[in-house]
Amino acid sequence: xxxxxxxxxxxxxxxxxxxxxxxxxxxxxxxxxxxxxxxxxxxxxxxxxxxxxxxxxxxxxxxxxxxxxxxxxxxxxxxxxxxxxxxxxxxxxxxxxxxxxxxxxxxxxxxxxxxxxxxxxxxxxxxxxxxxxxxxxxxxxxxxxxxxxxxxxxxxxxxxxxxxxxxxxxxxxxxxxxxxxxxxxxxxxxxxxxxxxxxxxxxxxxxxxxxxxxxxxxxxxxxxxxxxxxxxxxxxxxxxxxxxxxxxxxxxxxxxxxxxxxxxxxxxxxxxxxxxxxxxxxxxxxx
Length: 287
What we know:
Elements: E1 8-14, E2 17-23, H1 33-41, E3 49-54, E4 64-69, E5 74-75, H2 79-90, E6 97-102, E7 105-113, E8 116-120, E9 143-145, E10 154-160, E11 164-169, H3 178-186, E12 196-204, E13 207-214, E14 218-220, H4 224-236, E15 243-248, E16 251-257, E17 263-268, E18 270-276
Parallel strand pairs: 2-3, 4-6, 11-12, 13-15
Antiparallel strand pairs: 1-2, 1-18, 3-4, 4-5, 6-7, 7-8, 8-17, 9-10, 10-11, 12-13, 13-14, 15-16, 16-17
């Protein structure tokens, strides 16, 4: 039998960003791209990101979390998924906070209400090597992205919030076709690890409306790390305050860029159902 058959999964969402939590704590099982794709092919379990929980590696953390996009690629961060994991792990707990460990470092999470959680997403990284970009760029808040000679170039702010993000500020969000430009910009040669693409319209200093194309997942109803990147980019360019509501198709996130340089994201989560993985899912996947 496949090593993941019969394992518990929890389907949730954060503002419509569809999350599946796979709890592998206490088990030697691991996940590869073929397994992730197999789970995503299930009619009921299709997701944007899968959060695989492993036994903690560091004292004081509740779990080591690996994050996968639905194409099987591994992500460095998922704010909405992290809030869902915090809800799952804090069920029945009396405490109001916990720490999670990811490949990108430790994340502090707080319970703000029964269905509302906050996550310290860490410090933004804006040096070209940290994003990363393929070559040195003197000002990563204004990089030029050209698709074809017949199209006007895009001017983007590049920020790494666990994942590489390119934020393009526009005057009229509704007039832009993200489905057409998102996949092409994701794979732009300047991004050796691809990039999440956000189109952002500043409505007021404390309110930005955003649409996101996620690398490895496509258009999503919400992306927490993108919301953080948008706030950092907007504040850095003087377009927004350091705390703002980021409105995504799935709803609103409250993002604040604190004086200690950490970015905190707060928003709701929603539980959908629990299930066990069907062995039939993995008939063509690597054991």
